[in-house]
Amino acid sequence: xxxxxxxxxxxxxxxxxxxxxxxxxxxxxxxxxxxxxxxxxxxxxxxxxxxxxxxxxxxxxxxxxxxxxxxxxxxxxxxxxxxxxxxxxxxxxxxxxxxxxxxxxxxxxxxxxxxxxxxxxxxxxxxxxxxxxxxxxxxxxxxxxxxxxxxxxxxxxxxxxxxxxxxxxxxxxxxxxxxxxxxxxxxxxxxxxxxxxxxxxxxxxxxxxxxxxxxxxxxxxxxxxxxxxxxxxxxxxxxxxxxxxxxxxxxxxxxxxxxxxxxxxxxxxxxxxxxxx
Length: 277
Hints:
Blueprint lengths: L4 E7 L7 E7 L3 E5 L4 E8 L1 E6 L2 E5 L4 E4 L5 E6 L4 E8 L1 H12 L6 E3 L4 E2 L2 H16 L4 H18 L2 E3 L7 H15 L7 H7 L4 H12 L3 H18 L4 H7 L5 H12 L3 H8 L2
Antiparallel strand pairs: 1-2, 2-9, 3-8, 4-7, 4-9, 5-6, 5-8, 7-11, 10-12
Helix pairs in contact: 1-3, 2-3, 4-5
């Protein structure tokens, strides 16, 4: 009997923040989570079902999936067939100058797309070409940067809008941003609803209601997602899984393994080993 899932991570040796996931799943479901990076994916076979941006999506083969940084989502294989897909993850800092160049405005700010599913053969082919280069460790830095530029340009043309750095935000937005900043600054400490809501200057009831409406996940889910994201960064820098589990408050190594695997499909050790090759 074949395995119900397979995940393989690869990192670019030319573009430090660029990573690729190649996955094949039939009996696996991701916990709801978010990434700090932009994520571009293409379904190769089967159907990918997921909830994000307040809606349930079904992604057929050849269609592009796009997640903004901090956009919550889950995911699983839809229907009776195995799901094969690839995802690329790139930091906002890496893509910012490419998006700005595509927009013709150095002050364009961060690109944000309201479209989660995009049908665009040009964008799809650029993503697939980039994943082949990274997974095969072939081509030069300029080859990968060229494809990233193509992706940034196409996203700007097809689905992009820019959030001005100086754009006004509502008071609830500012208060929730305070809460998120507090969470990210205290991931290695004990966190509670009381402390987080106090940081936002909101009652616990009001905070919970606003947070869920804004982010599509509970504060607890957000804390776990942020801790796993910070843990992933630490693993990439060579910190041992045991040290990472202790640093970010997981009850034990087994607990860390389970939480990490529900978001990334592999254990912390497997993730670290896959990027070492």
